[in-house]
Amino acid sequence: MSTLETIINPKQRKGKKAVQAEAIYQALDSMKAHVLPLSSLVQSELNVRKRPVDEKSLSELADSIQAVGVLQNLVVYPMDNDVYGVAAGQRRLLALHQLVEKGHIASSFPVPVKIVPESDALIISLTENSQREAMHPADQLHAFIELQKTGQSTAEIGDLLGFSTHHVKKCLRLANMAPELLMELDADNITLDQLQALTGTTDHERQVMVWNNAFGWKKEPRHLREAVEETKTPVENNRLVSFVGLVAYELAGGTLEIDLFTESGFIENAPLLEKLALDKLTACAELLAEIEGWQCGIARLERPSFYGNDGEIFSLSHAPEAVISPEFADLLAELRAREADLREQALNAEEYHEQIDLWQAVENCEQQIESIKHRTKNQAWTAEEKSTKGVVIYLDRDGEPCVIRGVLDQAQQEQQRIEDESHSESVNDPSTASVVIESSYSAALWKSLSSERTLAVQAALTQHPNVALAILVHDACLQVFGSPYAKTAFNIKFSRSQDELLKNAPTAQDSEALQSLNTQFESWSVRLPEQWQADFTWLLSWEQADLVALLALCAAQTLSEVNQHAPLDNTLAKALLPIEQAIAFDFRQWWQPTKANFFGRISKDQISDCLADAGASDKALEAVKMKKGDAAELAENTLKETHWLPSCFLDVNADTHHTDNAQ
After folding, report:
1. For residues 194 and 592, what is the distance between their CA atoms, to the nearest angstrom?
2. Of all helices (H) and strands (E), which one includes residue 498?
3. Which of 199, 292, 453, 547 has the most crowded CB, counting CB atoms within 10 A?
């Protein structure tokens, strides 16, 4: 979380200016409202919110205004030619304009407003927006700059708006950062803490270079500060220098510092050296991808870890099993025979120089063998597999390029998925094409809902130990008699997945499924003898029924199926369907939608659709006219006893009728 403030702290309102701001705000509350035609209202530069408005939320606001009118006055100030600038209420103004464009209202639509002097407009806008919700840091920076232009000091700005002087100084310093980085802040690509870390230098070019060269853990604020403040890097034993070359560095404008204690000296522009290395690696990666037919080539200065921050960007596919052709098999056999012969000669050689030559020949044979293995392994990738995967080239500790093949770029895959869906929609004939359910739920909600479902299947599976045993044996056969990389239902390491599932779905903490699992876990824990971890012999005296039941509990808790993104057919955790069918699983017995776990996380229109789907059409109409929070509570209370489920929890091939209808 950022250490910088983003919302006004009422406890900080101490100075005379703060009293003045409160007085302005109180006066605004008691001020008489006027009615002006919409055509006389325009957006104002004094409105502190500069970022683009979310179109979806704007449409929802427009629908609400069309249904119930403008419930909150806009705050405006007079401009030239009978035009009024909107200092507070920009979203309402844009929503009204949207209704005009759709032909729902006229440009003369009467709008309730409160008129204030222009001198108070900026203060009112900043105060109103900060108190209503945490204002975006970028908007806050712009607002402080505008107040500073009026001649007010940092202390006066802080007193006026209830911020600490220290906070205002920080923001104004950040406002002088490279414009490219401020654009990144506007786009939510950089945090305030990261931006603050880059203030270690006032050189805009260096700030941008360090940020663009940072990946994964190097984007953490402390690493950014170290990089931006680093002034001298030794040339000696520098892997980047080995890869780029000093000549290329100096031709790019880099300089060296030579002192009396080293022969090689120091690199004075470390970010430039990193940029040159990354550019060269990128060219290599793109060329290799083009030659071998991969979807993309990616460059990194360090080897990706494929977990943590890197895991959110990349994933690594299992390499296909290499098939060695007869000619390569004959060559490998010949090389191995030669290697064995040379190794025996080296061990029996009496002369030292003869031993050295023979061992060198052994090493050459080993390198040729590994080269053939490597080549056949790379050739095992099919053109279809390469079309969806890429290669990553990184530098090892000696500055040598290394290649990882079969890498999935998560962002690119998601973009490709969206493009494929869009293309499919455009070419399919609606009269003959099968219906594809398109979801507008967020990725976080998909992850949460699928995690709750998996928890419930875990709990239900413990009641069917015979099924759990059959699945476990089948999984073992898949891996012993088939491929070690075969997809299995259980995680054979028997690692409990509850922590990860609860991280995805915090609302499941009090769920019936988790309570059932915890109760069983505690009852079995009491039955375990002292020092039970020493060996397994104590289990030999247990009844088979108890062994199977305990195995079912252990195995069930390894289930970890979670949707990371919205599925194309709108069905959650499809891999669990065979298990659910085997145990006659009914999610209605374990879960019901509430404001916390579902309705509060979807739009008001979606809440209305859910109510209509459950047969509560009258409640669906009521929800449209309510605030989103109230609509979510209405849906929860209406559907509490109906056993209704969102369609994503239902098998698309099964009967999806509801057991009860909402009253």
Report:
1. 41
2. helix 498-504
3. 453
Q: Alpha-carbon Rg of the chain, whole angstroms?
A: 33
Length of the chain: 663
Strands, sheet with 296-299, edge to edge from the N-terminal-most edge strand: 296-299, 390-395, 401-409, 314-316
C-alpha dist (Å) from residue 136 to 48, 126, 129, 246: 10, 11, 10, 44
Question: Which residue's structure tokens are 């000093």?
Answer: 246
Are the C-beta atoms of residues 183 and 51 closer than 8 Å to each other? Answer: no
Q: Quick one: tokens of 72?
A: 């909150």
Residues 555 and 521: their CA atoms lie apart, in Å, by 12
Beta-carbon contacts of 296 under 8 Å, excluding residues fewer than 6 positions away, are 289, 390, 391, 409, 412
* Domain map (residue ranges) of the chain: 10-187, 188-226, 334-380, 443-591
Long-range contacts of 55-63 (CB under 8 A, 24+ apart): 56/603, 57/91, 58/91, 58/94, 58/95, 58/98, 59/98, 60/603, 60/604, 60/605, 60/628, 61/91, 61/92, 61/95, 62/95, 62/96, 62/98, 62/99, 62/102, 63/605, 63/624
Q: What is the CATH number of domain 10-187?
A: 3.90.1530.10
Q: Where do the DSSP E strands lie in 181-322? A: 233-234, 256-257, 266-267, 296-299, 314-316
3 state DSSP class of 432: coil
**Are 121 and 46 in contact, with CB atoms under 8 Å apart?**
yes
Q: Is 15's pLDDT higher than 50?
A: no
Q: What count of other Cβ atoms lies within 10 Å of the Cβ of residue 203?
A: 13
pLDDT digits (tens, 9 = 90+) for 490-517: 665 555 667 778 777 777 777 888 888 8
Assess contact for 640 and 663: CB atoms under 8 A.
no
H or E stretch covering 111: strand 110-115
Q: What is the rounded distance in angstroms from the CA atom of residue 165 to the CA atom of residue 169?
A: 6
